[in-house]
Structures are given as structure tokens and as C-alpha cells.
Design goal:
327 residues; five-stranded mixed beta sheet; globular; binds N-hydroxy-L-asparagine
Length: 327
């Protein structure tokens, strides 16, 4: 007996490994492209608020590129989130530096890295994409560009993050934040709009207590984010160095191009990360992916990663990612 659409969508959402027999037993496609539009998917529990903002745009027929930017701006402005935007944990010298990138349905992209003192790196990245002939600006150049574009200068270091940093220094730098929620909370958000166009955004303060000058995967097109409007999009969270080594999100999209579902593509990409990183048991890496038909998936190394999804048949909610290692 065929499962109804709702069941199929849910089985897609919780991953191919969760109910493989149901997915495998489908003999006819139960989803037409119209069924799953619009869709928004984003990393970690701050994704709920980000999705809500993105959904307001998507539900009224707005463009995916506007939705992804608006969504992650919510996270960037939340001072309680200690891994994105204001409130982000600083580097080892006590300075907060931000990385972000964005891609639209035309394959245009913009990126900023090592950006200080600006609340919305994602919007600066979008301005790089739309107003310059470059893809990436870093450090002082990115800041000068942002100021020239009218972005105000703000203090990104909150009392809480300053205190955490001071405690970390006193602990003689032996204590590293835990692998999941404390250290790796980048927001990556993908959207498929009613028109069937895909866009993505990714923004972070990076790994807490990182070396001065360190840039992770999040602003690197192909590593922390990749969107190909013919196929789908992917974004990453976790230990950026490992994601860069595997060019993770480009890999996820290429795996979808080869015919893999978003779920399977994320699983294969995590396997590639594992193959390329001998220390893989010590790090977290997670991917989320969304294809052109609105199907999505996620996979990670360590249990604990979750993501937020909303589409016409699913209220905005958190879904646990399957993982290679259990708790
Ligand atoms: C980084 N990938 O800078 C980022 C951190 C992260 O969820 O993803 N946090 O390495």
C-alpha cells in the first residue's frame, strides 16, 4: 500500500535511513514539484526564528534570495546566540570576526570573511555580490566596503561572550567548547521559492577561540555553501577545516546532480569528510541539502545536530539529523 504524501514527505525529512523501506517501496512519484514549494531549511535551533522570517517572504511569493538574507539576519542580530553575528564568541585575542556568504539562483555569489564590527555580514556579502565585480572581500577591505555602503559600526562582543573568553583564558586554554551546540552553531539556510528558484546563505562567528586571522568554511563558496539552481543547494556546519578539505557543499550538490537524493548526498559527503580527516571522530560536521523538487535531507558525524524545516505541509519545526556516530 502506498503511503500518502504526508508520510512520504515526513520520511524524506527524517532521512532515508530512518524509514528506508517506505521510501524504497514507492513505485510512483508522490510529489509533484508543486507539492513542495516553497521550502525553507536551516541549521540548528536558531533556524526556527530564521525560517519564520524567511517564510514571511516565501509564503507571499517572494524571492528565495530575499528570504535567505532576511532569515539569517534574525540570527545575526540575536545577542544570545554565541556563534553568529552579535554575541558571537571571539577569537583567541578576544576579537569577534565574522564570516558569511550568499548565493542566488543565477549562481551569483558574494562573501565576506574576517569582518569586524558589522552586525549583518550576510547583507555585506549580498552587497559584494550585487554591487561589485568580486566574490569575496576580507578584513579591512570588507569593513571599509561595508561602511561605505552605509552599514553602521557596532560592538559585536557582548558581556557574556567576553566573560566566556576570559574564563577560557584562565582555564589555560585547555577547555574547548563542546562539539555541537557550544562551538558549532553557524546558521546555514536554504530556500526554494514559489517560482522554483533556489538560494542559500551562511553566516557565523566561526570556531570559538580560533587563531587570529582564521577563516573557516562558512564564507567559502563550495565549502560552507553551494547552490546550483538546476540541481539544489547545500550548506554546512561544524569544523570548517574539515569541510574545506572536502569542498563539502559543492560535493553535496554534485552528488545530487549524479542522481542522489539530498539525504543520500549528505550521507556520502559526510563519508568523504571522514575519509579526508583522520581525526574525524573528534570533530562535528553536518550538511543540510535541498533539491529543486523541494526534497531535503541532512546528515552529520556526531548525534546532536538538528535543523529547522518549513514547507506547505509541515509547520516550522526541528528535525533531528541522522548521524554516523551515536551519542
Ligand atoms: C567554522 N563552520 O567557522 C564554522 C563553524 C560552524 O556551526 O559551523 N559552526 O568552522
Amino acid at each position: 500500500m502506498h503511503k500518502n504524501r504526508r508520510t512520504f514527505i515526513k520520511s524524506t525529512a527524517i532521512g532515508a535511513t530512518a524509514i528506508p523501506s517506505i521510501v524504497a517501496s514507492l513505485s510512483e512519484p508522490l510529489l509533484s514539484e508543486d507539492d513542495l514549494k516553497p521550502v525553507v531549511i536551516s541549521t540548528w535551533n536558531h533556524g526556527l526564528a530564521a525560517n519564520e522570517a524567511a517564510w514571511k517572504i516565501l509564503a507571499t511569493g517572494g524571492k528565495a534570495i530575499d528570504a535567505v538574507e532576511s532569515g539569517v539576519r534574525i540570527t545575526e542580530s540575536d545577542p544570545t546566540g554565541q556563534s553568529v553575528g552579535i554575541g558571537g564568541r571571539p577569537d583567541m585575542t578576544g576579537e569577534v570576526t565574522l564570516d558569511a556568504c550568499i548565493m542566488n539562483e543565477h549562481g551569483d555569489c558574494g562573501s565576506v570573511a574576517y569582518l569586524k564590527g558589522i552586525e549583518h555580514p550576510i547583507s555585506v556579502a549580498r552587497a559584494v555580490m550585487e554591487k561589485t565585480r568580486h566574490v569575496m572581500l576580507v578584513g579591512d577591505g570588507a569593513k571599509e566596503f561595508a561602511l561605505a555602503q552605509g552599514f553602521p559600526e557596532v560592538n559585536l562582543l557582548t558581556e557574556k561572550s567576553k566573560k566566556d573568553w576570559e574564563e577560557w583564558k584562565v582555564s589555560q586554554r585547555k577547555v574547548l567548547p563542546k562539539i555541537n551546540v557550544e562551538n558549532h552553531d553557524t546558521i546555514g539556510l536554504l530556500a526554494l521559492d514559489k517560482n522554483g528558484d533556489l538560494s542559500g546563505a551562511c553566516t557565523t562567528s566561526g570556531a570559538a577561540w580560533k587563531m587570529k586571522g582564521r577563516v573557516g568554511d562558512s564564507p567559502i563558496i563550495g565549502a560552507g555553501l553551494y547552490v546550483d539552481n538546476e540541481i539544489g543547494g547545500a550548506t554546512a556546519t561544524g569544523w570548517g577545516e574539515a569541510v574545506i578539505r572536502a569542498v563539502g557543499c559543492f560535493l553535496v550538490v554534485e552528488l545530487m546532480r549524479q542522481g542522489n537524493s539530498p539525504q543520500k548526498a549528505c550521507e556520502l559527503a559526510v563519508q568523504r569528510v571522514i575519509d579526508k580527516n583522520p581525526d574525524w571522530r573528534e570533530i562535528q560536521v553536518g550538511f543540510i541539502a535541498l533539491n529543486k523538487s523541494g526534497e531535503y535531507g541532512a546528515y552529520c558525524i556526531h548525534a546532536g545536530f538538528d535543523y529547522a524545516v518549513q514547507h506547505p505541509k509541515l509547520d516550522n519545526q526541528m528535525i533531528k539529523s541522522d548521524s554516523r556516530l551515536s551519542l
